[in-house]
Amino acid sequence: MTQDGCVFCAIARGQAEASVVYEDASVLAFMDLQPVTPGHLLVIPKAHSAGLGDLPEEAGIQVWRAAHRLAGALRASGLRCEGVNLFLADGEAAFQEVFHVHLHVFPRFAGDPFRIDADWRVHERDRLDRTAAAVRKGLAASRAAGGPGIMPA
Ligand SMILES: [Zn+2]
């Protein structure tokens, strides 16, 4: 399944230029055009899904499997790689810019330019417990709606 006007679908069809590093029946991995560090890869399902909400679980597993292997490949590549980040942006508020699911896999090293700015303060246990309850409620709702409900009831 592809979507007209989707650049990652075009890459998956071989109709747009990309520096491909890995391909199988369901997954493609290629160099990010704007690498945060040299070696920055994007792993995509070949079938179009805009975000996690419409990504079949099996496709997510296949994307993760490829990313896991590619993280090892980066460490063995000779590129500077003291660590690896996997990063997935789901939704505009999460800085998703191309609405075809993609998992970033990129080398990290001391002094590299990648930053995540956040408030990392420790929260109180009762607040964490209330938040956990909300997430469990969401998980039950997702399961009831036929979505991915991977935790036992
Ligand atoms: Zn697409």
Automatic annotation (TrEMBL):
<dbReference type="InterPro" id="IPR011146">
    <property type="entry name" value="HIT-like"/>
</dbReference>
<feature type="domain" description="HIT">
    <location>
        <begin position="7"/>
        <end position="115"/>
    </location>
</feature>
<dbReference type="InterPro" id="IPR019808">
    <property type="entry name" value="Histidine_triad_CS"/>
</dbReference>
<dbReference type="Pfam" id="PF01230">
    <property type="entry name" value="HIT"/>
</dbReference>
<protein>
    <submittedName>
        <fullName>HIT family protein</fullName>
    </submittedName>
</protein>
<feature type="short sequence motif" description="Histidine triad motif">
    <location>
        <begin position="100"/>
        <end position="104"/>
    </location>
</feature>
<dbReference type="InterPro" id="IPR001310">
    <property type="entry name" value="Histidine_triad_HIT"/>
</dbReference>
<dbReference type="InterPro" id="IPR036265">
    <property type="entry name" value="HIT-like_sf"/>
</dbReference>
